[in-house]
Model the fold of this input.
Amino acid sequence: LPRLKPVDLELREGEILGVFGLVGAGRTRLARTLFGLEPATGGELEVAGRAVAVDSPVKAIEAGLGYVGEDRSAGLVPRMSVASNITLASLTEVTRGPVVDFGAERDVARRYAEELAIRTSSIDAPVESLSGGNQQKVVLARWTCSRARVLVLDDPTRGIDVGAKEEVFRLVRELSARGVATLYFTSELREARTLAHRVLVMSDGRIVRDVPP
Done:
């Protein structure tokens, strides 16, 4: 991945901020850095006006961030059930002390699976049995379930069919209407123009322009 240069950006509540750049522009490195997968060596990050130190995904989740990478398989536990994958970032809702309440887990997961129209034979089916588009919706359901305030989406429609892409667009718009702020990283100019309220252009590890769609 290319080296990341100093980056300064602001994301507003309910905003879909597109970050467009070609392969090698530094999009993925910026997305991974914001979520603590590749901790920054310096700088400051504020969420809702409060300074936060994000040096790991655990800290990112605690700060209210959610992440969907371009490789969806890295965001799923393939042999775990759809239900378990959805509740993975919200375990306090489905545990009693150190023990998972599987009935509660299914109830919570079923609600979000229905809301996001995830097509599965059963909420208990292994997530690896789902189509690519439905797997991506499971990851989005996880962050909806965790009530993430900021979503970092890195090329979330890569490798899924046109119908599933439109579903992802719809979900992002619905979350935006609820006040969720979204950083939408993409190498597809059409996606940036269609979905974003504002577009940042990245090149050589830095943001070079801020333009209307």
